[in-house]
From TrEMBL:
The chain crosses the membrane at residues 15-37, 49-75, 81-100, 107-123. This is DoxX-like family protein. It comes from the Bacteria. GO terms for cellular component: membrane. InterPro entries: DoxX (IPR032808), UCP030066 (IPR016944). Its main location: membrane. Keywords: Membrane, Transmembrane, Transmembrane helix. It is a multi-pass membrane protein. It is found in: Membrane.
Length: 141
């Protein structure tokens, strides 16, 4: 592989990472703000699914913090937790819609959000990944 090809592949991956990450972070942060404000669109879906509206404030806070963690430099372990949380939020929403049979038109948006979570996580550069020793006990088994 030539240097030009390697550079092009790296830059394409970096662009794909930042596009998916930017869209994911925007969804998390804007969605989190909407949740905290309990805008009618979001509140109506949550009530229709049978959840209490106070859950929106909790989820909204977590979404905003997760979006900020994914965008911030450093803290790779925190990023892993943020990606996991985003995956749990969006996959849980898919399951909620499927099991209740309500608001199924939302599934497309939720599927896109899940794809963004997985794509951003898979495309993240080495500097945003947990190293092989992270999370292991220093003192041994």
């Amino acid at each position: 592989m030539t240097a030009i090809t390697a550079s092009h592949g790296t830059s394409t991956r970096a662009v794909a990472y930042w596009v998916t990450t930017g869209l994911l972070a925007a969804e998390l942060i804007v969605g989190g703000i909407w949740d905290i404000l309990r805008i009618p669109l979001v509140r109506d879906v949550v009530v229709h699914l049978g959840y209490p509206t106070y859950l929106l404030v909790i989820l909204g806070t977590w979404k905003i913090l997760g979006g900020a963690a994914i965008l911030a430099p450093g803290y790779p372990v925190l990023k892993e937790w943020a990606y996991a949380g985003a995956f749990f939020v969006f996959s849980g929403a898919v399951v909620s819609h499927l099991t209740t049979g309500k608001d199924l038109q939302e599934l497309g948006v939720l599927a896109v959000a899940l794809i963004l979570v997985v794509a951003s996580w898979a495309l993240r550069p080495g500097s945003r990944r947990v190293s092989g020793n992270a999370g292991r006990s220093v003192s041994g088994p």
